[in-house]
């Protein structure tokens, strides 16, 4: 019996799930998640106006969403001070990454990223046959200078940088990012992932949509508290943004997401409140870490990387001992980063559970070591 | 100033919107849509239980959706009597089409479809550099025998057939489809689009997930009344279904879609009611057509193709004169089909407006001719 053959690229790819969800962990272990602080979601939730808008729009889900995302693009453009042809919407930043890799990367094309940076970007690069080249972190920062140098050296078609950074929570000021952008050749697309920009300590780099090779990715999943709705957007030169209309699933962003994103954008007071709440939670996570003899890294995001003070296996043991107590966190696994665990900012209820579970987690990890 | 170059395939693609939404028509013309009966949505809406589930789940949108769609796949598998590894979920059938073309079609690979069949399938084939070959409709039916013969003749990698058919609403009984499947070589993937299967006059072909080259596509967008939520599913051999996990956007299906689809599936009484309501609306559309001297084609779908009795330009004129009166319908444009307009089944309120608008539309079209 013969089978339809996959393409040559697809033939090489494994079946995978980039992130195992807490639901899958619950199904496997039978342990109920009591504190969901591992996926950098916002436990503070979306604006009450978002919830109201979702409820009001529920009977209208029988119509297709507007394939042009016209209202949302217009609202975002007004909010950002750019043209609506300079922003496109997709099913989260993950959806945008799949599309932008497809636009620019053919089998064998070189893509530069940091060793330990966002794995779903890598998943899409590999998925289109791209050739990934890795630059190590400089301490707990991605290293813009080294990324630009590597991009030039290997004649990369694309280079990825997250600012603020995931998984370490670090941040480069605008001047450093501007220098990085200038150092990358114009023929190489810069993917600047700004998923966490709302929680950054200073206004990021001004928007420059004249730059022919810069795409900035943003999302309603983090500070806006709408991860479940899958709504991300890309900002850039209209040649770049227009190109998404060559290949995207025009009806991919669902109507509830469109409605919710409009409501979220219109409630900037709530966003400011949420950003403050996230900052408070970061402080509390740092103090829980300190109470347990661990060091929390400064964070520009909605999570905190906590140095468990030893090596990777020890941090894995801490994570597992937290999981046994129903505390869902994740951790980086790249060398140099892997002694950390990554804890999402959440409301007091979740952090109370973390505070309660942490001493036993450390104790168990120490016993295991 | 240089630009990052697109891939060779993307370089050839136009920026496009496969379907201009009624919202865009409203924006362009300033005419408010009074009867939205052009996109084969279900104006009867989703089950009240779906609306209740969406409202109840609204505060939970801060968490990512389960990337495995576990609960929904399990519920679908139980409903269909298959294994949960034999079904995958995506952002509507459109999303599935993008993925399945990417799995199997490399630049230059041949894909067979009918001239005038679903254009978004063609969009994705061209988007991955596939070489489309067209088989004409046999009257108002896609022609399974000719499609299989063409697939063999040109050594196609993929062949597409919708049953029931869009845009004509026609239907082939299971025996004809089974003969078609047997006539296609096992190395050629059969994409059987069953978006409209719930409204078909008889149970379609039994599910055979042992067939190595058959993918069946279904959706919650049509009879279930959830087009805005973007939730489609593919059924097939586990090798085919598993392959989607090599490339899909795992977090692409949003949480509201997951919740709603579960609620919809659990309310089969509502589905039966909706299917009856759709059948009633089809009858009414046929009688509105007859009142205006036009012939409605038999329909196995949630829409009716109405023969305007002359040629393509005349049918376009009818469509435009309906649009001027706020009645949104669409029409096929392929030769042999283009004398028809396609009217979606909707509630009485929408069809009252159609009945009122139709005489003037015909009159205007006749004057224009």
UniProtKB/TrEMBL annotation, chains A, B:
<dbReference type="InterPro" id="IPR001917">
    <property type="entry name" value="Aminotrans_II_pyridoxalP_BS"/>
</dbReference>
<comment type="pathway">
    <text>Amino-acid biosynthesis.</text>
</comment>
<dbReference type="GO" id="GO:0008483">
    <property type="term" value="F:transaminase activity"/>
</dbReference>
<dbReference type="InterPro" id="IPR004839">
    <property type="entry name" value="Aminotransferase_I/II_large"/>
</dbReference>
<dbReference type="InterPro" id="IPR015422">
    <property type="entry name" value="PyrdxlP-dep_Trfase_small"/>
</dbReference>
<dbReference type="Pfam" id="PF00155">
    <property type="entry name" value="Aminotran_1_2"/>
</dbReference>
<comment type="similarity">
    <text>Belongs to the class-II pyridoxal-phosphate-dependent aminotransferase family. Histidinol-phosphate aminotransferase subfamily.</text>
</comment>
<keyword id="KW-0663">Pyridoxal phosphate</keyword>
<dbReference type="InterPro" id="IPR015424">
    <property type="entry name" value="PyrdxlP-dep_Trfase"/>
</dbReference>
<protein>
    <submittedName>
        <fullName>Pyridoxal phosphate-dependent aminotransferase</fullName>
    </submittedName>
</protein>
<keyword id="KW-0032">Aminotransferase</keyword>
<keyword id="KW-0808">Transferase</keyword>
<feature type="domain" description="Aminotransferase class I/classII large">
    <location>
        <begin position="38"/>
        <end position="357"/>
    </location>
</feature>
<dbReference type="InterPro" id="IPR050106">
    <property type="entry name" value="HistidinolP_aminotransfase"/>
</dbReference>
<dbReference type="InterPro" id="IPR015421">
    <property type="entry name" value="PyrdxlP-dep_Trfase_major"/>
</dbReference>
């Amino acid at each position: 019996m013969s089978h339809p053959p996959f393409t040559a690229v697809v033939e090489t790819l494994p079946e995978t799930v980039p992130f195992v969800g807490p639901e899958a962990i619950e199904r496997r272990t039978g342990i109920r998640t009591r504190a969901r602080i591992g996926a950098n979601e916002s436990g503070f939730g979306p604006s009450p106006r978002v919830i109201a808008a979702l409820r009001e729009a529920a009977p209208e889900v029988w119509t297709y969403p507007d394939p042009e995302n016209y209202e949302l693009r217009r609202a975002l453009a007004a909010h950002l001070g750019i043209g609506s042809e300079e922003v496109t919407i997709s099913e989260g930043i993950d959806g945008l990454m799949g599309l932008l890799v497809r636009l620019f990367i053919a089998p064998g094309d070189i893509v530069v990223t940091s060793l330990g940076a966002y794995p779903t970007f890598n998943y899409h690069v590999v998925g289109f046959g791209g050739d990934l080249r890795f630059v190590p972190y400089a301490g707990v920062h991605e290293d813009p200078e080294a990324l630009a140098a590597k991009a030039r050296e290997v004649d990369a078609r694309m280079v990825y940088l997250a600012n603020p950074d995931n998984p370490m929570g670090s941040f480069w000021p605008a001047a450093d990012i501007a220098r990085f952008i200038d150092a990358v050749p114009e023929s190489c697309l810069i993917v600047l992932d700004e998923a966490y920009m709302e929680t950054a300590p200073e206004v990021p780099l001004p928007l420059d949509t004249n730059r022919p090779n810069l795409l900035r990715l943003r999302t309603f999943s983090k500070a806006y508290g709408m991860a479940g709705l899958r709504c991300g957007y890309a900002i850039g030169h209209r040649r770049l943004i227009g190109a998404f209309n060559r290949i995207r699933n025009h009806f991919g962003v669902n109507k509830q997401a469109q409605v919710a994103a409009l409501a979220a954008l219109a409630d900037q007071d709530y966003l400011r409140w949420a950003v403050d709440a996230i900052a408070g939670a970061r402080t509390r996570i740092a103090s829980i870490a300190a109470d347990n003899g661990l060091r929390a890294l400064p964070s520009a995001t909605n999570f905190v990387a906590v140095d468990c003070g030893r090596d990777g296996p020890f941090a894995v043991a801490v994570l597992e001992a937290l999981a046994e107590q129903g505390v869902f966190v994740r951790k980086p696994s790249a060398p140099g980063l892997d002694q950390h665990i990554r804890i999402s900012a959440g409301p007091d209820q979740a952090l109370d559970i973390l505070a309660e579970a942490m001493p036993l987690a450390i104790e168990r990890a120490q016993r295991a070591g």
